[in-house]
């Protein structure tokens, strides 16, 4: 999240370059100056060491009619390269793996320009934006779905459709110092009791240090029933249900505030500070992810991993799911899908991916001899997938600020989280928040708007009469028209005949050129149309 | 260099080989330009092609026209400026008037094509898992199995054959799939998928035919959408809805929207969105006033400290002058990114060096990152550290340029040191350093790196309608709003905000340069 503005600005420029490609549909520009890591010549596929190859097929560099290109990251590229020879020998199809660290930024520019890979490795929280843009082709796992961690599949789905094949799940776990604590606490009150006793005895500086204000503190918040977005029936997140000011979140905030005031929770929420304090034995408990394993082991602190303490609910971390998605604009969509479902989604491939990535696998039958990873894997069962809806982008900053205000003791949890939630709802609703509109087939005819059925057109918005009703009058030529009420400049909340949500259109006829007055009652959701 | 300078003033006399050489060079350039422009056109980058062609034509004109001889020496610079400064700015302006961003990344044709590829399974349609076969003539056949366990053999254009009636079946595997069918050999799904056209092949007749939908499933699919070019609408056959494009989003008359749209011009929408957004309801007064205070104080403090040091070391009799001056330059030579992060660590409330020292000396531990005013002071201290060497360098040069006789005359008139400084040194300095002060002010006005890397604009302002911190300046505040907290990546909105910020900064700069011109006049009159 901490990108320099200039990266963004230059991205805008790059985007501008790509946008200038308003010519024929497929514009695979070769001299597009800014998009280096696009698909190279198929010849230069980075396969094995040439020495090994020479024995099998002398002199001839293996070339193929068809290639599959994968964009991957530092960690996984070597693992994927390990598949190349087997795959090429077995199927006679070339496999090109490219390490593209900034693929999240490159992909939305390269794919529409026809220069994207066939398959891209993605963390699931960026799926929403790409799927919303039509860049990802759906995946059909068939019976194999049963072999995957269901939460991973859930995370890798968007709008109820699976848009990729997950391979790893990562989530945080609860660490405790085995020298200082004998039995791990199961509730947060116990954490404070055990840790507080250590602090009072002078054996620890704090009972707990938070390593962050949002993601890193989330397992504590969920333990009190806090959440970020509510879920729909099908398990997907509902952006209209913001839980930053939910009772549970506030209760967690109160708990943190009380802990800070008592001197048991550090007022610092710095990631490094918290980890150092745990590594040096100043703090007996830590919430951390598998990415901290290396430094914890190096520090030599005696630790054990266990489930998150619960309170009114089970303490659950966010889980991040890594996987592969298919570029919908690739020439080889079916082939890429087949590669993922038939070649990658197999015991052998998944085992290699898990070993290479040092993360708990999304493939259930993968075994790991690392007890820490196994412990992380167990917690994954209760983890909640990090929301992959684009609205999540609006949450982080305000949420973090609210936690900071609580930790600093500047505001009560209810006040801080309440305001943060208001900020987030505002951002999600966008500029048109509060707009009451009557989009319909009459809009263009009235001259108020350029097009019909536009819920965000300001020209046709109703004005607030101050008594719960909204109204506006327009001149219309004779004709038959239809209309509906839409809120906040979008169709998300709309009312039709009889005030029914998502109901039928109102139909009305203007006999001779005249004026039409719309009056909307926000209590009954009824629209009154008076034609004069 | 010297040689070229001597030649420069002469208009070329046009000895034959010189002219030939010049024409050959021009020819080479033209060849390159034509190739570049042609391939840009061929790939569909019309705007880029036009710009390159225009630049090429301009180059020819400048080189061939005698009157424009002096411009020739700036030609390369001008070309690069057009390509890498003016052209991207124009594109940014262009993007600002479009909806480019998540959900609208594709061209209209691409979005239509993708929708036309979508197929759906009508009610009563059959779905099967498939296994592919191929014969020596590269003809394909499918072995289909439905959920009830019934199997069929399917050839393109022929009715499905129930498994019992099929002939020439090879050995069945455990799933009941034959290893071969007549002279058709069994293929793996990946091998079948290698054929790009396979998804368009209908196995079976129009009545019972299936198409491959995924690596496992084949079904009696129908195209989901139809595009009516005349009406510019997409018709959904599955639910009968008709979608028309509204600002690049396919919208039905019931208000349904298709999941993705295309890039389209949206007029001033991005600008109105910004002006109507909660960004303007934030603590703008606080942010703007702090922005001015921050920029002014940064310039004032760095200039003052730099000047003091330069003034002290202007005295040549000081021992070790050069070495100390070199040491004082160190903050300037370390990348500011690293310096800021180090300072951030030093200002850590609990473990920072600064608080440890203060604690052991005075038993106080100021909460630098929590108290708004302390955070502001900390930021100014860091910026002082980052900025003073620059002014030390500039002013020590400028000091030496002030004529000694002015001071001598002042001494004769009986002026003391302080009078000399404020009556002679400072006015004389401001003449030469004034524009640099303005430049420094503008730079600090937009000093995003420092604000963002140090504490990300924090500590947060409570109850602000949109996210804001006490040390946020305009640009970091807008960044949080437009880029970090955006619902999605919206390049169009980003470009629009970039333009708005550019206008604000340009106005401030313009105003200040007017101001400095006044300084110059004062300087000349004095």
Estimated share of beta-strand residues of chain A: 15-25%
Number of strands of chain B: 14
Supply the CATH class of the largest domain in chain B: Mainly Alpha
Mean pLDDT of chain B, as a whole number?
83
Provide the gyration radius of chain A in Å.
28 Å
How helix-rich are the residues of chain A, as a percent range? Answer: 25-40%
Q: Please state roughly what percent of the residues of chain B sit in beta strands, choosing from under 5%, 5-15%, 15-25%, 25-35%, 35-45% or over 45%.
A: 5-15%
Uncertain segments of chain A? 1-60
CATH superfamily of the largest domain in chain B: MetI-like
Shape field of chain A: flat
Q: Termini separation of chain B (Å)?
A: 39 Å
Overall pLDDT of chain A, averaged? 82
The biggest chain-chain interface is: A-B, 104 and 98 residues
Count helical runs of chain B: 18
Question: What does the largest sheet of chain A look like?
Answer: 7 strands, mixed
| Assembly state | heterodimer
How many DSSP helices of chain A? Answer: 17
Q: What's the story with the biggest beta sheet of chain B?
A: 8 strands, antiparallel
Rg of chain B computed from alpha carbons, rounded to a whole number of angstroms = 36 Å
What class, by secondary structure content of chain B?
alpha+beta
């Amino acid at each position: 999240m901490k990108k320099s503005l200039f990266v963004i600005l230059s991205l805008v420029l790059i985007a501008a370059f790509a946008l200038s490609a308003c010519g024929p549909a497929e514009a695979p520009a070769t001299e597009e100056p800014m998009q280096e890591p696009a698909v190279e010549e198929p010849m230069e596929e980075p396969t094995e060491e040439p020495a090994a190859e020479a024995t099998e097929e002398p002199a001839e560099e293996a070339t193929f009619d068809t290639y599959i290109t994968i964009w991957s990251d530092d960690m996984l590229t070597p693992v994927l390269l390990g598949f190349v020879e087997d795959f090429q020998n077995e199927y006679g199809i070339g496999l090109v793996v490219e390490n593209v660290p900034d693929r999240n930024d490159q992909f939305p520019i390269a794919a529409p320009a026809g220069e994207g890979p066939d398959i891209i490795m993605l963390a699931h929280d960026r799926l929403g934006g790409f799927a919303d843009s039509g860049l990802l082709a759906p995946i059909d796992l068939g019976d194999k779905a049963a072999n995957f961690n269901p939460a991973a599949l859930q995370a890798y789905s968007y709008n109820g459709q699976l848009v990729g094949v997950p391979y790893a799940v990562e989530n945080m776990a609860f660490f405790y110092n085995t020298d200082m604590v004998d039995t791990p606490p199961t509730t947060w009150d116990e954490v404070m009791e055990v840790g507080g006793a250590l602090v009072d005895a002078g054996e620890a500086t704090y009972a707990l240090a938070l390593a962050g204000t949002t993601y890193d503190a989330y397992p504590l918040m969920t333990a009190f029933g806090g959440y970020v977005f509510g879920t729909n029936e099908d398990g997907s997140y509902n952006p209209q249900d913001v839980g930053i000011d939910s009772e549970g979140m506030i209760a967690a905030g109160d708990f943190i505030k009380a802990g800070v005031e008592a001197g048991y929770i550090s007022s610092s929420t710095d990631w490094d500070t918290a980890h150092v304090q745990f590594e040096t034995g100043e703090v007996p408990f830590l919430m951390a992810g598998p990415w901290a394993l290396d430094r914890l082991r190096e520090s030599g602190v005696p630790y054990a991993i266990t489930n998150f303490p619960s309170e009114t609910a089970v303490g659950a971390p966010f889980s991040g799911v890594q996987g592969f998605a298919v570029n919908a604009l690739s020439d080889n969509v079916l082939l890429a899908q087949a590669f993922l479902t038939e070649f990658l989604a197999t015991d052998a491939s998944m085992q290699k991916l898990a070993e290479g990535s040092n993360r708990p696998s999304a493939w259930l039958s993968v075994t790991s001899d690392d007890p820490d990873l196994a412990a992380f894997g167990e917690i994954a069962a209760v983890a909640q997938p990090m929301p992959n809806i684009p609205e999540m982008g609006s949450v982080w900053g305000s949420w973090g600020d609210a936690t900071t205000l609580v930790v600093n003791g500047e505001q009560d949890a209810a006040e801080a989280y309440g305001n943060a939630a208001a900020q987030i709802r505002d951002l999600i609703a966008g500029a048109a928040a509060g707009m009451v509109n009557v989009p319909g087939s009459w809009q263009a005819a009235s001259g108020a708007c350029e097009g019909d059925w536009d819920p965000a057109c300001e020209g046709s918005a109703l004005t607030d009469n101050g008594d719960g009703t909204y109204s506006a009058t327009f001149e219309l030529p004779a004709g038959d028209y239809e209309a509906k009420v839409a809120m906040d400049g979008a169709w998300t909340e709309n009312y039709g005949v009889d005030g029914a949500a998502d109901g039928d259109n109102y139909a009305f006829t203007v006999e001779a050129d005249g004026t039409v007055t719309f009056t909307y009652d926000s209590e009954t959701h009824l629209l009154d149309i008076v034609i004069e | 260099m010297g040689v070229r300078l001597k030649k420069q003033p002469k208009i070329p006399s046009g000895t034959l080989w010189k002219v030939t050489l010049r024409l050959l060079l021009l020819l080479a350039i033209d060849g390159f330009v034509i190739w570049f422009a042609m391939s840009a056109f061929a790939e569909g980058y019309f705007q880029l092609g036009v710009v390159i062609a225009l630049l090429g034509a301009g180059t020819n004109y400048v080189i061939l026209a005698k009157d424009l001889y002096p411009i020739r020496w700036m030609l390369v610079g001008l070309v690069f400026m057009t390509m890498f400064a003016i052209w991207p700015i124009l594109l940014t302006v262009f993007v600002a008037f479009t909806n480019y961003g998540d959900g609208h990344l594709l061209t209209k044709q691409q979005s239509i094509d993708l929708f036309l590829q979508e197929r759906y399974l009508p009610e009563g349609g059959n779905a099967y898992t498939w296994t592919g076969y191929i014969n020596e003539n590269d003809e394909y056949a499918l072995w289909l199995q439905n959920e009830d366990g019934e199997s069929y053999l399917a050839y393109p254009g022929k009715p499905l054959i129930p498994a019992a009636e099929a002939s020439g079946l090879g050995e069945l595997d455990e799933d009941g799939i034959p290893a071969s069918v007549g002279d058709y050999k069994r293929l793996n799904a990946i091998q079948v998928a290698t054929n790009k056209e396979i998804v368009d092949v209908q196995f079976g007749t129009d009545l019972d035919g299936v198409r491959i939908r995924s690596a496992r499933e084949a079904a009696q699919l129908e195209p989901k959408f139809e595009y009516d070019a005349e009406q510019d609408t997409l018709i959904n056959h599955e639910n009968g809805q008709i979608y028309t494009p509204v600002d690049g989003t396919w919208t039905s008359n019931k208000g349904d929207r298709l999941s993705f749209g295309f890039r389209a011009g949206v007029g001033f929408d991005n600008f109105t969105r910004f002006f109507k957004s909660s960004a303007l309801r934030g603590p703008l007064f606080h942010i703007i006033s702090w922005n001015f205070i921050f920029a002014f104080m940064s310039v004032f403090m760095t200039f003052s400290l730099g000047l003091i040091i330069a003034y002290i070391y202007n005295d040549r009799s000081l021992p070790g002058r050069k070495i100390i001056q070199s040491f004082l330059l160190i903050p300037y030579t370390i990348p500011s990114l690293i310096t800021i992060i180090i300072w951030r660590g030093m200002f850590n409330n609990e473990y920072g060096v600064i608080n440890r020292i203060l604690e052991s000396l005075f038993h106080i531990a100021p909460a630098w990152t929590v108290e708004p005013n302390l955070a502001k002071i900390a930021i100014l201290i860091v910026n002082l550290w980052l900025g003073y060497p620059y002014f030390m360098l500039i002013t020590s040069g400028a000091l030496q340029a002030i004529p000694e006789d002015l001071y001598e005359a002042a001494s004769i008139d009986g002026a003391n040191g302080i009078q000399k400084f404020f009556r002679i040194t400072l006015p004389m300095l401001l003449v030469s350093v004034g524009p640099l002060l303005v430049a420094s002010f503008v730079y600090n006005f937009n000093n995003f790196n420092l604000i963002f890397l140090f504490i990300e604009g924090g500590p947060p302002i409570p109850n602000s309608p949109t996210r804001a911190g006490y040390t946020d300046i305009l640009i970091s505040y807008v960044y949080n709003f437009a880029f970090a907290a955006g619902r999605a990546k919206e390049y169009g909105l980003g470009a629009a905000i970039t333009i708005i910020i550019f206008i604000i900064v340009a106005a401030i700069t313009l105003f200040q340069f007017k101001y400095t011109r006044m300084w110059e006049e004062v300087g000349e009159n004095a």
